[in-house]
Write a structure and sequence with these properties.
The complex is a heterodimer of chains A (203) and B (80). Chain A is α/β, with parallel strands linked by helices. Helices cover 47% and strands 12% of the residues of chain A. Chain A is built from 8 helices and 5 strands. Chain A has a 5-stranded parallel beta sheet with strand order 4-3-2-1-5, with helices on both faces. In chain A, β3, α7 and β4 form a beta-alpha-beta unit. In chain A, α3 packs parallel to α6. The radius of gyration of chain A is 27 Å and the shape is elongated. Chain A starts with a helix and ends with a strand. Chain B has 80 residues and is of the alpha+beta class. Chain B is 26% helix and 32% strand. Chain B has a 4-stranded mixed beta sheet, covered by helices on one side. The longest helix of chain B is centred in the middle third of the chain and has 12 residues. Classes of the chains: A alpha/beta (203), B alpha+beta (80).
């Protein structure tokens, strides 16, 4: 190909040396590279998150990152898969819970009594609800905004919540169960979106 | 010595933790004109680094960042 082009040029009325042709090619390459860099710098940054957990404590990290990213002017897509689907399920979102059992990081419920809840106590009926109440009160005390608000902020900021279509089929979740504004997506389409992401995280 | 900067609006985000101040300032900056300055107060220990990052990412200008005790004071100019 390169030789053909050189010959074609040589066949013309003017002779262009191979050296000159090589220099022109190199300059074109540099121009194209610079243009690609410019385009990359101009387009907004993109965050791709996978939210795979459905407990109250694990709803916060993806929603904090998503709502922050839209506040930075980034493009955001949160792919909610398996239990993460509960975060965008309008029936389950208000009922997300945190379990005191098997959770060694769970702080002591009462600051006055510096003792964690033993697993055997955490097993008792009502303890999960109690742990959830405590977590909600910590969040309220810290003036943290409710998780539903973080979802709304993300959507209003142009972010996307993608419900994993396969999980919906596996878990028997219908489109009507999902929050308004949630889109359905398969793994392939999400990977396509994530392939252009500047930050991609699995939570 | 604290710099004297004239702000067109003051926002008090003391008592709020990350990411709430950033979410709020991102909305509030749209309520002032391009070129105007907003003064923001916060006491989240992460705020200085967060505001530097937020202005870098959004293209707004962090004119000044001050600390008085536990309170941080930021002056931000809306650029676009």
């Amino acid at each position: 190909m390169a030789d053909e082009q050189t010959q074609a040029v040589e066949a013309g009325s003017e002779m262009i040396s191979r050296d000159l042709l090589a220099r022109i090619r190199e300059e074109i390459r540099q121009e194209v590279r610079a243009e690609l860099e410019r385009q990359k710098a101009e387009r907004p940054k993109r965050l791709a998150l996978v939210a795979s957990k459905g407990s109250l404590d694990m709803a916060y990290p993806p929603l904090i990152l998503a709502s922050t990213a839209v506040s930075l002017g980034w493009e955001v897509g949160v792919f909610c898969t398996f239990y993460g689907l509960d975060i965008i399920n309008k029936h389950k979102l208000p009922r997300l819970k945190v379990a005191p059992v098997g959770n060694p990081a769970m702080p002591a419920p009462l600051p006055q009594i510096p003792m964690q809840v033993p697993n055997i106590v955490g097993m008792l009926p009502g303890m999960t609800e109690l742990a959830t109440k405590f977590m909600q009160s910590w969040m309220d005390r810290a003036n943290m905004i409710p998780i539903k608000d973080m979802i709304d902020i993300t959507l209003e900021g142009g972010g996307h919540f993608y419900a994993c279509a396969t999980t919906m089929g596996v878990m028997g979740v219908n489109k009507e169960d999902l929050l308004e504004g949630v889109e359905l997506l398969g793994a392939t389409a999400f990977l396509d979106f994530a392939s252009e992401a500047d930050v991609a995280l699995f939570i | 010595m604290a710099t004297i900067l004239k702000a067109d609006q003051t926002l008090d985000y003391r008592g709020l933790l990350c990411p709430v101040p950033v979410i709020k300032i991102a909305k509030a900056i749209k309520n002032i004109q391009v070129g105007q300055v907003v003064e923001m107060l916060a006491d989240d220990p992460g705020a200085p680094a967060d505001m530097q990052a937020w202005t870098k990412q959004t293209g707004h200008q962090l004119l000044d960042s001050q600390q008085e005790g536990n309170t941080f004071r930021f002056y931000i100019r809306r650029m676009k």
